[in-house]
Amino acid sequence: MNTMPSDSTAYMASQPPDVLWWPKFDDTYSIIALAISVAIFFIAYFAGGKLNRTKMFASFLTASILGFFAMPLVIDLFSRFNFLQSRLGVVGMYSVVMIFVAALSVNIYEIIVVTAREALPPR
Asked: Which of 8, 48, 66, 110 is the most exposed, fewest CB within 10 Å of its CB?
């Protein structure tokens, strides 16, 4: 009988790496955050979102595309300093990208609105 030695790393190599990790909170916090988010979208819709839907969508889309293309640079930066070796570093990287995209979206929207106001003279 020809027996091969068992390779204990074969199982681990077949498993996907633990790349996406986020701290686990109680579901109540997630539900509250989601409810507040929906309320903000609802309030913003009636506070001018209905009229500025195109501008908001353009700023959101532009910021998302720019964030998508900036992500490899952020990953490289966090990798150089070995932050991605820990779960906290991965959370930090995702948080930095989320803050970057959110801030970028707000600033793009502001540029669009200010440019539109300056282009159109007051009546």
From this structure: 8
Pair 69, 46: CB distance under 8 Å: no
Which tokens go with 60?
Answer: 């959101």
8 A C-beta contact, residue 85 and residue 93: no
Which tokens hold the place of 76?
Answer: 């490289």
Contact 93/84 with Cβ under 8 angstroms? Answer: yes
**Residue-wise pLDDT tens digits, 29-46:** 989 989 998 898 888 888
Q: How far apart are CA 67 and CA 56, in angstroms?
A: 16
Dist CA 42 CA 47 (whole Å):
9
Euclidean distance between CA atoms 93 and 79, whole angstroms: 10
Tokens representing 66? Answer: 């720019």
